[in-house]
Every structure is written in C-alpha cells, then in structure tokens.
Design a protein that fits this description.
Layout (H helix, E strand, L loop, with lengths): L1 H172 L1
C-alpha cells in the first residue's frame, strides 16, 4: 500500500510538474501578450502623437498638389493656345502652299507653251537653214557653171582674138 501511495505520489508529482510547466508556459504567453499589448498601446499613442504632424504634412502636400495642378492647368491652357496658333499658321501655310502650287502649275503651263513655240520656231529655223543651204549649194553650182561658161567663153574669145590678130598680122604682112 505504501507502494501504491508512493506511486500515486509520484504520479501526483508528475502531474504537478506538468501543471507547473503548463503554468510557466501560460505565464510566459501572458507576459508576451502583456508586452504586446503595451507595445500596441505605445504604438497607438505614438501614432496619436504623430497624427498632427502627418495631418500637417498632408495639408502641405495637398496645397503643393493644388498649386502644381494649377500650374499644369495653366500650362495646358497655354499649350492649347500655342497649338491653336500653330494650327492657324499651318492652315495659312497650307492655303499659301495650295496657291503657290496653282501658280506653279499655271507657270508650268505657260512654260510648256513657250517651249512648244520655241521648238516650233527652232524647227522652222532649221527648215529655213536647210532650204537656205540647198539654195546656197544650188547657187554655188550655178556660179561654177557660169564661171566655167565664162572661162570657156573668155578662152574662146581669147582664141578668136588671137586668131584675129594672127589674121591681121598675116593680112598686114601680105
């Protein structure tokens, strides 16, 4: 029976030991939970302390953003005005380009007519030069023929003059 009491006592000591370990574990968990709660409370208080600074910074940032937004809006308006001015200039330049193209086309047509007239005059001039060359050759041939005839007639006249002189000489000598 003592043995049974000893066994029960040992069993109870084991139970006590397990319960103490469990109690220590729960105490540790409780301490950690308290530390976490204190840390959370401290963090909450720190956040509450930082809130006015953050709100102030947020207000400054909002103001900066508002000012930047105004600047962007003004820049956009100015860009729209500039774009409108450029579009107006572009439209003016496009109409000027169209006008100049029309003028260029008209001048091209005038130039084409002038070139055709000049080509016709050149052809007529070449035809005239060709005719003149033919007439000049014909005239040269005629001159050569007349010169030959003249030379022949002159020779014939000279021969007749020589014969006549011979006849006169022989008539005088006789």
């Amino acid at each position: 029976m003592i043995q049974a009491h000893v066994e029960r006592l040992a069993l109870r000591e084991t139970e006590v030991h397990q319960l103490q370990e469990e109690l220590n574990l729960k105490n540790n968990l409780l301490k950690r939970a308290q530390i976490r709660e204190q840390d959370t409370k401290q963090a909450h208080e720190d956040c509450i302390d930082l809130l006015p600074q953050k709100e102030s910074r947020l207000s400054r940032i909002k103001e900066e953003l508002r000012l930047k937004d105004e600047l962007v809006q003004k820049a956009a308006e100015k860009e729209q005005e500039t774009n409108k001015a450029f579009e107006d200039q572009l439209a003016h330049k496009n109409s000027e380009v169209c006008r100049l193209k029309d003028e260029l086309k008209a001048m091209g047509e005038v130039q084409d007519r002038a070139v055709k007239k000049r080509q016709e005059r050149t052809r007529a001039h070449i035809a005239t030069l060709d005719l003149l060359t033919k007439k000049d050759l014909e005239l040269q041939r005629n001159e050569e023929n007349w010169r030959r005839k003249y030379d022949e007639l002159q020779k014939c006249l000279q021969d007749q003059t020589d014969n006549l002189q011979l006849l006169q000489k022989s008539a005088q000598e006789e």
